[in-house]
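I'll show an entry:

:::
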Amino acid sequence: YVIPMVVITLDSASRIGILSGGRGMFEMIRSEIGVWLAWGIFVPTVLVNVVVNMSQMSAMVEGAYGALGMLPPANGEATVGLFIVTIGLTGTTVIAAVLGGYRRMETIMTALLVVILVCFIVVAIKGLLDWRTWPALAAGLIPKIPDSIPVIDQPERTRNAFTQIMAIAGQALPPAVLLSYGYLSANSGYTAADVKRTFWKTVTNLGVVWGLFSVMVIVAGATALHDVYNGSGPTHLGVSHYSQIESIPVAGQVLGPPFPGALGFLAPRFFSLGLIAAAFTTLISVSLTMSYFCL
């Protein structure tokens, strides 16, 4: 249900930027309603985006450790290695954003999403071959909040289902994306003649690619977690149940079942590389958003 809403909302924001002569949502709010409201939206939005980028960089750093077959420092301990990895990833991201231009970054991000989708399809095939997966997918179309899951061996802790749902909804359509999409479309050089083409591009990128990606993530995640971290299977790095997962390299073990036995060690590396790509696309988008907002 989120996918059509995302497509329609972002296409509308794109048309605003293109047909208003490059005026984005913030400029229109400031000129048509009032400066006070524009600042009232701007300040908390930027602060939220800073936190979002911190989380994406953290995911990229943990992913870099996982790609090398290592665990990140425990409890966020500051180490020389952590500092070097963070600076290296930050520099790479800034160079890619500044020197590439938005159109090139748009192409790169689309390609990365397709690569990630293919990887999830490989894992999800195993789940889709099980007939019980299809009724479960159909049942998922009925909105409901699952029960919270207690953390194994830590009965005082739970994984709250409602919190997870809100996090997914916030990632799917954050207000910052709606506010900035018009600026990004105008900066790409699109004109009124491109409106129809940009609509179908949005449908392709978000309705098809992102929609398939979402389905494959759900199927692949459920399949892998139930096969690996089900509480009765093998223990990886002290973790035997998905409620105990705390780091990216550990989570990457869920890709183990699709790999042949001799190649099982590649599972966390592939998982980590995919997560780096996903975090990179989000970090670039949020950084560009903050730049437009500040200007």
